[in-house]
Amino acid sequence: MKISIVGTGYMGLATGVGFASKKNHVICMDIDKKRLDKIEGGKSPVYETGLQDLLERVVEKKNLEVSSDLDYAVKNSDVSFICVPTPSKRNGSSDLKFIDKVSRNLGSSLAKKDSYHVVVVKSTVPPRTTEKLVIPNLEEFSGKKAGENFGVCMNPEFLREGSALDDFLNPDRIVIGELDKRSGDVLVELYANFNAPIIRTGLKVAEMIKYASNAFLASKISFANEIGNVCKSLGIDVYEVMMGVGLDHRISPHFLRAGVGFGGSCFSKDLKALVNKSKTIGYDPVYLEEALNLNERQPVRIVNLLRKRVGTLRGRNICILGLAFKPNTDDVRDASSIRVVKELLKFGAKIKAHDPKSMDNFKELFPGLLYCKTAREALRDSDACLVLTEWEDFKNLEDKDFSVMKNRIIIEGRKALNPNKVKDFEGVCW
Ligand code: UGA
Q1: Do the strands 174-178 and 150-154 form a parallel or antiparallel pair, or are they unpaired?
Q2: Taking Cα atoms as reference points, which of 394, 402, 425, 401 lies closest to residue 412?
């Protein structure tokens, strides 16, 4: 099938490369020409496991091309996926300005095309956005009727950063929200060679499935953190507890790792958008709000533990190991490390930090910290160390690496250190 992808962020690009590897022809469209040049040259502009290799292959085989011309992309494809960002506004609601613009532009491109075309919303959008914003824009700017001259679907993504390509190629399920059967049939055909159950629903159900999934995963982590906070006071290791809890098949062991809280560009943003949406319809979503609040408090907890151990933080050298919101990414968006650093700076601490991939990105937010090339360099002469991302490198650290510290106080936010290699450290929830 011929596909166009509008927006080549980590999700759009993984989707495009993934479809291209399944013998479709893909046109990646973006307004950022530099990004497109890179993709055209077979170079991935984002770091994603496996993406670079597969991108090179599909470009070489001419299964993937790029264009900054939306008319060209629409004319030369049967389906267009909207993969643009939906960031948070100040009040937590979803900022739909990119969705608005792209759906208008797609409408204009559809006006110039005679044959049937399906527009698919893949971006995470609040329930009813496709119905209330995307379809009206497409109809107004194309002068055509949705469900007659063109089709519309909402096909949410469940891709984790760092394993986006693998998640795309091996999904647990494929959700196809469809305006009508004809639109949905096109996507069912496109996904025919995937080994996953397909769920066909209405547009707003598909939109809600994405929000409910992220809200559940985020609250599962907050739940683990809450139990962890109680465990800590009782001298219990929450990881041992969750091992026992997670073996219940109704619960599953995933997303029960307690620590300094969840970060990233999705969970907080989507929870806030769902909270905001609920309030606009007169419902007070206390459970969702508390999952968010608890997450805001977790990074403060690790600093409070540190203050108990160190006393005053003023002028103290604190080493931070791990800045990325999770391992195998250079992304620091909404990372727990940001909240921890703000809190440490508030108390006058001096910070030395190390992260294998994300120091350049973190530097843009906090240019005044001392960034170190190695964990050992960051640990040298420090009064205490906080571990905030479970990078594989940190799992290999040994007692001798910590021997360069001035005072040996180590507090773990992620269960990254190996207790067989490092002695005497405490965890935020264990
Ligand atoms: C998340 C979802 O997992 C994806 O399904 C979804 O498609 C994506 O958001 C999105 O909406 O686009 P992502 O944010 O990339 O993916 O990363 P996750 O692996 O879910 O981790 C999010 C955060 O939760 C990280 O900070 C991680 O350290 C933290 N986490 C995760 C925990 O603290 N404990 C856990 O047990 C699991």
Answers
A1: antiparallel
A2: 425
Q: Is 32 helix (H, G, I), strand (E, B) or coil?
A: coil
Is 266 known to be catalytic?
yes
CB of 262 sitting under 6 A from ligand 1: yes
What dihedral do alpha carbons 28, 31, 32, 35 form, nearest 10°? 0
Decide if 334 contacts 296 (C-beta within 8 A).
no
Q: In ligand 1, which atom is closest to the CA atom of 264?
A: 14
CA–centroid distance, 214 to ligand 1, in Å, is: 8
Domains belonging to the chain, first-starting first, are 2-201 (3.40.50.720), 216-427 (3.40.50.720)
Exposed e or buried b for every residue in 96-126, given b needs 16+ CB within 10 A? bebbeebbbbbbbbbeebeeebbbbbbbbbb
Of 266, 319, 385, 429, the active-site residue reads 266
- Helix, strand, coil % over all residues of the chain, rounded to 5: 45, 15, 40
188-219 pLDDT, tens digit per residue, is 999 999 999 999 999 999 999 999 999 999 99
What's the predicted TM-score (pTM) here?
Answer: 0.96
Which atom of ligand 1 is closest in space to residue 156's alpha carbon? 7
- Tell me 24's DSSP state: -
Decide whether any atom of ligand 1 lies within 6 Å of the 416 Cβ. Answer: no
Residue 387 carries which DSSP code?
Answer: E
pLDDT tens digits, 64-91: 999 999 999 999 999 999 999 999 999 9
Q: Which atom of ligand 1 is nearest to the CA of 389?
A: 28
**Residue carrying structure tokens 């939306």:** 70
**Per-residue pLDDT, 46:** 85
